[in-house]
Amino acid sequence: MATSRISLTRFLIERQRDKALINADLRLLIETVARACKAISHAVNKGALAGNLGSAGTDNVQGEVQKKLDVLSNEILLEANEWGGNLAALASEEMEDPHPIPTHFPKGEYLLLFDPLDGSSNIDVNVSVGTIFSVLRCPKAATGGGYCEADEKAFLQPGTQQIAAGFAVYGPSTMLVLTVGDGTHGFTLDREMGSFVLTHPDIRIPEDTAEFAINMSNMRRWEPAVKRYIDECLAGKTGVRGKDFNMRWVASMVSDVYRILTRGGIFMYPRDDKNTAGRLRLMYEANPMSFIIEQAGGASTDGNGRLLDVKPEGLHQRVAVILGSKNEVERVTSYHKG
Ligand code: AHG
Ligand code: MN
Ligand code: MN
Questions:
Q1: Which long-range contacts (CB under 8 A, 24 or more apart) does 138-143 make?
Q2: Where in the chain is the domain with CATH 3.40.190.80?
Q3: Which residue of 21, 56, 104, 289 has the smallest Cβ count within 10 Å?
Q4: Whose CA is nearest to atom 6 of ligand 1?
């Protein structure tokens, strides 16, 4: 076995010691999230053998039916992150309000947001799912210098304020994709060793692409700019684009974004007549993915402007998302302006 493998731990230590990009608290936080992702990966992998498939019989705050794995993944992330002393509070797709740190544990300066199980409609059909997370700094109280009141307001910071973001995808391999602001890096889980190994350093997204990802069943409801863009892609070689396009839609954002990081492409979940604000959630889906995509040389917009600049108004707010290869994202943006 090669001895020069770079583990996630070594990668983070180097960012802390050599580059001063992160501190020990943030390193512990990222390692703890990664450890929770290993546990979720294990639960996903066991599937029916552990009785993990199917509905939990409850709804979340957005009125969506929770799968057993939505609930379990949320519990794994909460339990793993409560005691480390580095968090002021946590927020999740599966919980209406921020989750405070229990009083018997110390508090820290960070806020952690997550989508514990992304793509949960794919669980029962054995298609890849994942976990998305975002880290913000908790604003200090105006008086005193103690840590902030970790209420919903503390979380409502634009995506530009993120200090780390990542996602795991539980696919043929379990992968962790991470940014702390110096590029986007991919790690593969070595199950025997139990560690994430740096296998995809400094991922770069090609600026051009001939592949798009969108749920075509919503076409009749799209806004005109998106309809125009997709119509032109579908026209292929004989149309204005002068080339044929390919289409993919996994319906797990983690997988669609991972594919774009690997070979380019454009991913769109636009606002439409049914989802007038968009479908994806700003704080724990769109923002972390946009940070990761930008750090890999791609672009991300809500159609009106840079997605990371959107000023959040609610923890579970939805937003239109158009991200991926830079030149294609710019083209869709120009159609919105037109
Ligand atoms: P979640 O399972 O966390 O609710 O997220 C699912 C999201 C995203 O992963 C995916 O891109 C999209 O919903 C799929 O939407 P459709 O069901 O419209 O295809
Ligand atoms: Mn999701
Ligand atoms: Mn989810």
A1: 138/88, 138/89, 138/109, 138/110, 138/111, 140/109
A2: 211-337
A3: 104
A4: 119
Asked whether 119 lines ligand 1 (CB < 6 A), one says: yes
Domain ranges in the chain with CATH number 3.30.540.10:
2-200
253 lines ligand 1 (CB under 6 A): yes
307 lines ligand 1 (CB under 6 A): no
Per-residue pLDDT tens digits for 239-288: 999 999 999 999 999 999 999 999 999 999 999 999 999 999 999 999 99
Q: What is the CATH code of the structural domain delimited by 2-200?
A: 3.30.540.10
| Ligand with the closest atom to the CA of 272 | 1
CATH topology assigned to domain 211-337: D-Maltodextrin-Binding Protein; domain 2 (3.40.190)
Q: What is the pLDDT of residues 76-109, one digit of tens each?
A: 999 999 999 999 999 999 999 999 999 999 999 9
298 lines ligand 1 (CB under 6 A): no
Asked if residue 191 lies in contact with residue 160, where contact means CB atoms within 8 angstroms, the answer is no
Cβ atoms within 10 Å of 154's Cβ, excluding its own: 20
Give the ligand 1 atom nearest the CA of 252. 9
- Dump pLDDT digits (tens) for 136-146: 999 875 445 56
